[in-house]
Amino acid sequence: MALILAIESSCDETAVAITRDGELLANIVSTQIEVHRKYGGVMPEIASRLHTENISVVLKEALEVANVKLEDIDAFAVTRGPGLIGALHVGLQAAKTLAMLYKKPLIPVHHLAGHIYANEYVEKLEYPVLAVVVSGGNSELVIMEDDMEFKVIGETRDDAVGECYDKVARVLGLPYPGGIPIDKLAKEGTHAYNLPTPLQGEHTYDLSYSGLKTNVINLVHNLEQKGEKVNVPDMCKSFQDVAIGMVLDRAKRAALEYQVKEVILAGGVSANSYLRSEIQRIMGELNIKTIIPPMWCCTDQAAMIAKVADKLYKTKLFADLSLSVDPNWIIEDYKKF
Description:
alpha/beta, Nucleotidyltransferase, domain 5, 2 domains, five-stranded mixed sheet, 11 helices, globular
């Protein structure tokens, strides 16, 4: 029974989790959202500094909640990437220091693999699986024929969907992070603005959000220059229909083409109520099982890193102390470090 301590610091959450043979004993998260909100997005330098300040506090609390000591830990796991390079470094240096001091294995974990396997806190995955990964920094469709086998069949060509939400929210005068207020206001609006659907007509699983974001920004500015007021709920509804519609379209086509047994959501945008309800409706009509992660699994935390680390511990996929971070690490290369 492996006792694993995992550290996550890829963006603006400092997190430590402890599991025993896959069972979650502690999952402590210190979020920086309030600090970054005044800037309308994550400031990398500030994020790194706050991770440095918070990591020892979060580590101490996790050990207390789990009622274990550092010398009891069998392996130390850490998010190696993708993410903000400075933020990733803080977590990695902490994990490397602990692995060196206690002479225990160091396990590098891919951040998106963590988001995918967070769903196993709900139930075991049944393969083949289509993982719809949607977050502030990443948008990917991943086919998994078996456990820890990843094949990226589609990804964003520019902005990630969550990043697009944040930038649209900013131009509409809504708070950061943008996903929550846009999702809420979209329920009050109607699809009144004609926004283009990127890559429409192309048979691709790729996504694109830069053009959609720019179109919303230009439309808002043009209306303001004419002295016309933007109907914010209507704009939120019009934007969300297109942004989430792209994800739903590709998920439906991929699920059928690859004949998957189930579809899972992963990443911060999987908290979106429209995406959650529509993916269940669409896959239900196709008789394909859907796993929707609980809300606590949607945001960044270390429990998901520990879940993957438990699998890697069993296969002895360890790194030495020369390990470095990789902010652009590809999920298909999770064994290469």
